[in-house]
Amino acid sequence: MRSGTGGATGAVDLAVRRQQKAGLDQVNSRPAPGLWERITTSVETRLGEPELSPQDIADQHGISLRYLHRLFQLHGTTVNAWVRARRLEAAREELTQPGAAHRSIAAVGGRWGFANPSHCSRTFRARYGVSPVQWRSASAAGDRTVR
């Protein structure tokens, strides 16, 4: 009769291999150097994907969703808050570009992953205190008080 520990050992081995693949420091369970940078750099290239989710990010980097949330918590934020902030910053930056003046606010928001133009405008106003239209107008006029 088998003792049944072979399955448990296999599961532990699998977990250890996953940690090694993800770049985790097995001694203290802190992220390996460069993990945060790899994840944030990767996410920066995917900001325009409205369906980008924490699970997608975790899967891409071979780590658990829980660990991803813990990693962002160590940096004083959440995954969703960080992604939203980066999307808003990218949209805000694009709105200041003279070459983007012909693009609608909805198109700019959509380019940076906001599937709903109203949500983009509300979130933008909450973050910057003005609407995207006001931001663009002030930027075009050289009004630095809005910035």
Name a few traits of the molecule.
147 residues, 2 domains, 8 helices, elongated, mainly alpha, Homeodomain-like_sf, Arc Repressor Mutant, subunit A
What number is the mean pLDDT?
A: 85
Given helix and strand content, the structural type is mainly alpha
Number of helices: 8
Task: Using the CA coordinates, give the radius of gyration.
Answer: 21 Å
Q: Strand-and-helix sequence, N→C? A: HHHHHHHH
Q: What proportion of the residues form beta strands (DSSP E)?
A: under 5%
Distance linking N and C termini: 73 Å
Task: List low-confidence stretches.
Answer: none
Helix fraction by DSSP (H/I, runs of at least 4): 55-70%
Overall structural domain count: 2
Basic shape: elongated
Main sheet overview: none
Number of strands: 0
Pfam family, one: HTH_18
Protein name: Helix-turn-helix transcriptional regulator
Keywords: DNA-binding, Transcription, Transcription regulation
GO molecular function, one term: sequence-specific DNA binding
Set out the fold topology.
Layout: H1 5-22, H2 35-44, H3 54-61, H4 65-74, H5 79-95, H6 105-111, H7 117-128, H8 132-140
Helix pairs in contact: 3-4, 5-6, 6-7
